[in-house]
Specification:
- The complex is a heterodimer of chains A (261) and B (320).
- Chain A is 37% helix and 25% strand.
- Chain A has 261 residues and is an alpha/beta fold.
- Chain A has one domain: P-loop containing nucleotide triphosphate hydrolases (Rossmann fold, 3-Layer(aba) Sandwich).
- By secondary structure, chain B is mostly helical.
- The N terminus of chain B is likely disordered.
- Classes of the chains: A alpha/beta (261), B mainly alpha (320).
- At the A-B interface, strand 6 and helix 3 of A face helix 8 and helix 9 of B.
């Protein structure tokens, strides 16, 4: 039996509970994620996929239900630094160099100087930015900034990587290149990835499983296993099965959108 | 340890551009000074000999008689009054202001005005800097406290705002009564003008980080202390320095005003008051005092600007 990274039972999240602008963001969510899975959350705007990600990461409290991460509460998992976060905007600190940005979590976790420097070099090599240690974020392109943010998220070897539309603001070419890079990082680091996206292609290409959600209230409507062979590469996109899965996912999304009215 | 990379040429041209920028603004500043001098002297040239009327519109003396000026006789523009009197008492010529700086202010003293004003300026600057440091520290501390406690903010911020509506002239004597008249009481008065902008801007700056920047910190289970020093304070730096620049000049004004009730004789305050009383016999001396007072404020302002260049480096151009 594979170990569970995340186990969610009967999760509900209601914003502004009791007031008249109450929003049922997540309704009766049940979800199990095995270790080393690559899960994508996809659905129409307002379906609560980002909220679900934040509840798992203990950045937003749940209203009811249970969220276990690595067999402990999400809160404990956060205190144990089990999460690496990547947001849609790279969220780099302007006043820090690329290397100093990657070191931020290591500083907070009191790594020794040698270990900090070694991890930083290793991480920047992993995202192929080893020549940019002393640059400032605004001197980099959007894609490069996002790679720094991935390096920062992985620097302290968290067991779960939470990604909230990380490539949503990038152009198509950059996005495809970063998708490949992310997959190779995932293979090397053996982390569990939970990935929020709007893109059908991206979800199918990256994931081992895609969770489809509907809006108002946010519910899980489909759970599609992506049985494309690993490791994936540019040829994967030309695989017949790839197109079949894309179509399946597109239909699932259409269905969930109908349910969301 | 700057490694050379593809990007280094951009950096070099950046710093060159920066140096050019400094030259440019210095040059522009000097141009403005020249324009102001020309305006001052030009205005005086336009005035009739007694400084009251536009030249040519006032009556002129011919022998023992007073006759209308040429413009009055010619096109009927008679006795056009100037908005500000331009005689040498109201507007002493620039060259008098400069020459008076290099003369002793009183007969019998062998110290020239320049030395006296410079000493007084440094004395006042010391009070101002001390007050500035006190006020900035208090302002920063209050800002941090308010940023972390809505209760404190709601409870105390109104009083902080109210404190600035009480005129300095009313506060200064109270401080002197409580602390005795010494240069520390002057610094406290200067601090009173300093802490307010620093409080408001620190509070604003500490709250400026994006929600995701904070979420990132929470995802690392960072402590409030870490969030303060590694995220909030660095984000607030541009805001804080904007306030410090305002506070630097305000602290000099506070120190000059504070010297009067404190009975401090060594600073600019007493000198300006003195020259004010003897304005009739030496108007250019008061003007020289004013120039030194403003130079003192500007010096302090420039020091803070240089510190800002050092502490708020490497930000994108569109930062605050």
């Amino acid at each position: 039996m594979t170990e569970l990274a995340v186990s969610i039972k009967n999760l509900n999240k209601i914003f502004n509970q009791g007031s008249n602008n109450q929003v049922h963001a997540l309704k009766d969510i049940d979800l199990s994620i095995a270790s080393n899975e690559f899960i994508s959350l996809i659905g129409p705007s307002g379906c609560g996929k980002s909220t679900l990600l934040r509840v798992i990461g203990d950045l937003v409290p749940s209203s009811s239900g249970q969220v276990l991460v690595n067999n402990k509460s999400a809160h404990q998992a956060r205190l144990d630094r089990d999460y690496g976060m990547v947001f849609q905007s790279a969220t780099l600190y302007d006043w820090r160099t690329v290397a100093k940005n990657v070191q931020l979590p290591l500083e907070l976790m009191n790594y020794s100087k040698e270990k900090k420097d070694a991890r930083t070099r290793e991480m920047l090599k992993l995202v192929e930015l080893q020549d940019f240690h002393n640059h400032y974020p605004w001197q980099l392109s959007g894609g490069m900034q996002q790679r720094v943010s991935i390096a920062r998220a992985l620097a302290f070897e968290p067991s779960i990587l939470l990604m909230d539309e990380p490539f949503g603001a990038l152009d198509e070419m950059t996005r495809e290149r970063l998708n490949l890079e992310l997959l190779s990082i995932w293979e090397k680091t053996q982390t569990t990835v939970i990935f929020v996206t709007h893109s059908i292609t991206e979800a199918v290409f990256l994931s081992t499983r895609v969770i489809v959600m509907s809006a108002r209230p946010g519910q899980i409507t489909h759970d599609i296993t992506i049985d494309l062979p690993q490791p994936r590469n540019t040829d994967t996109r030309e695989n017949v099965r790839f197109f079949q899965l894309e179509t399946e996912l597109r239909e699932a999304l259409r269905e969930s959108e109908r349910m969301s009215v | 340890m700057l490694k050379s990379t593809k990007f280094s040429p951009i950096k070099e041209s950046d710093s060159k551009l920066n140096r050019l920028g400094w030259l440019k603004s210095t040059f522009f500043f000097l141009i403005i000074v020249v324009v102001l001098i020309l305006f001052w002297e030009g205005y005086k040239l336009l005035a009739s000999p007694d400084g009251q009327y536009l030249t040519g519109t006032a009556q002129v003396k011919v022998g023992d008689e007073r006759v209308p000026g040429p413009l009055c006789a010619g096109i009927g523009l008679c006795e056009l009054k100037l908005p500000v009197r331009a005689d040498d008492r109201s507007m002493p010529p620039i060259k008098n202001m400069i020459s008076t700086i290099f003369e002793p202010p009183r007969r019998g003293s062998n110290e020239i005005l320049f030395t006296i004003l410079l000493r007084a300026s440094l004395f006042t600057l010391r009070e101002a800097v001390t007050g500035f440091l006190l006020g900035a520290a208090a302002g920063f501390f209050l800002g941090v406290a308010f940023a972390h406690s809505g209760l404190l903010e709601r409870g105390l911020l109104p009083y902080v705002v109210a404190s600035q509506t009480v005129p300095l002239l009313a506060i200064a004597p109270m401080v002197v009564i409580w602390m005795g008249g010494n240069w520390m009481s002057v610094s406290v008065i200067a601090a009173y003008l300093t802490f307010f902008p620093v409080t408001i801007n620190t509070l604003r700056g500490l709250r400026s980080p994006q929600p995701t920047s904070l979420e990132l910190m929470h995802s690392y289970a960072a402590t409030k202390w870490d969030i303060l020093w590694k995220l909030r304070v660095p984000s607030a730096m541009p805001y804080i320095f904007t306030a410090l620049k305002v506070a630097a000049t305000a602290s000099v004004v506070g120190a000059i005003i504070g010297e009067l009730p404190s009975g401090i004789a060594d600073g600019l305050g007493r000198i300006i008051l003195n020259f004010n009383q003897y304005y009739a016999t030496g108007p250019e001396r008061l003007w020289a005092g004013i120039i030194f007072a403003s130079l003192t404020g500007m010096t302090f302002f420039l020091i803070i600007t240089l510190l800002e260049k050092f502490f708020v480096r490497h930000r994108p151009a569109d930062a605050v």
